[in-house]
Specification:
This protein is mostly beta strands. 0% of the residues lie in helices and 45% in strands.
Length: 71
Amino acid sequence: NTVYVSTAPTLSPTPHLFRSTDGGATFQNITGLLPNRYYMQVKANPRNDSILYLAVGGFGSNHIYKSTNKG
């Protein structure tokens, strides 16, 4: 029942990444210190849902981010 969604920086000054553990009824902001880039894709490890990968678009380095605590 965990859902991840993000916003695009075109509607707000910075993008945000959110997690819901109740099927979308409520969301928690898990953006933290992520860069001001487009969040292209988010994937949870199917064998360990504590591991999360986020691909971001844009220039510079660090286009793939990994979390080991669900974000």
